[in-house]
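Morning!

This is the sequence you dropped in the shared folder:
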Amino acid sequence: MRPTLFMLLVLYCPLAESATLQVENQSRFIAIIVTSLEGSLCTPNGQQLRPCLILPLSTSTYALSDTQALSATLRLASLPDADNTDISRLQKHAFKSVSEFTYQPVGALRYEQVRCETPISEGISINIILVDVMDVTCSTATDRHTSWVYKRNDVNVKFIVKDLPARQR
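The structure's back. Tokens below.
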């Protein structure tokens, strides 16, 4: 009876953990708008990203589904008035800086892909951390456009948005 019980426990225990996505907004003036090609990130569904707006000096962490693909874009917008958080109005004034995340946990090819791009003049840095794998920052002319794909779908990802110090003239 013991070998049967052990075998059942092994069958029901997952071999790998799901990935997580953490978005940390360390900026004092920038809001992060998370959008999706599927258009369903704002709906109250247990495994999808919400809310779609991450206010300054706040963090949101999301558990990613083992069975559902996700493609999301992080757009940055100035938030001069903390009381006005209308996403449609903020999207009209989004910066050119952007980060993207694709998560494919099912099918023959399983992967996660991340990308960031920051123009020099926007005073923003986007730090992407693949936990225990890699740490890359988009903030200068030499790394304005960074992209990579890795063939694992269990790596926890962090996006950290920061204000850059003002440049002296």
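Headline: The chain has one domain: 21-163.

More detail when I'm at my desk.
O.
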